[in-house]
UniProtKB/TrEMBL annotation:
Full protein name: Transmembrane protein
Spans through the membrane: 21-46, 66-97
Keyword Transmembrane helix carried by entry: yes
Keywords: Membrane, Transmembrane, Transmembrane helix
Organism: Cupriavidus basilensis
Length: 124
């Protein structure tokens, strides 16, 4: 069999496509009950080492942090909801969480489209 040789350009192109797919999975997580976010976080952890030293590393970090903070705030909302008295506050937490996640997805995707890292200290 012939050995497949990938260039750095191919690797970066592959990472870029993957990041677009991951942002899309996060963008539709509301429609899938969160299943696509679970798929995205698993893929993110598996593939993030491949992105070390590239601007895509910051996008993996951005997505992973977004996921875990959203889980924490969703759980807080669930705990408030369980108290029965604080149900309105739970809905407020979930509403703010939804807007925050939308912001994180849009900002990340726009930065990816512009070829910019998410954090200024992670330039390629």
């Amino acid at each position: 069999m012939a050995e497949v040789i990938t260039t750095d350009h191919d690797r970066l192109g592959s990472l870029r496509k993957l990041m677009h797919i991951l942002y899309a999975l996060y963008a539709i997580f509301w429609l899938t009950g969160g299943i696509t976010a679970l798929v995205a976080i698993v893929v993110g952890y598996v593939k993030r080492d491949d992105a070390q030293g590239t601007l895509y590393a910051s996008h993996f970090t951005w997505q992973i942090r977004s996921f875990w903070w959203s889980v924490a705030w969703a759980v807080l909302g669930g705990a408030l909801f369980a108290t029965m008295i604080l149900i309105p506050l739970a809905f407020a937490v979930w509403g703010v969480l939804s807007v925050w996640m939308l912001y994180r997805i849009v900002k990340g995707w726009l930065y990816l489209n512009d070829g910019k890292p998410m954090y200024q200290d992670q330039r390629s």
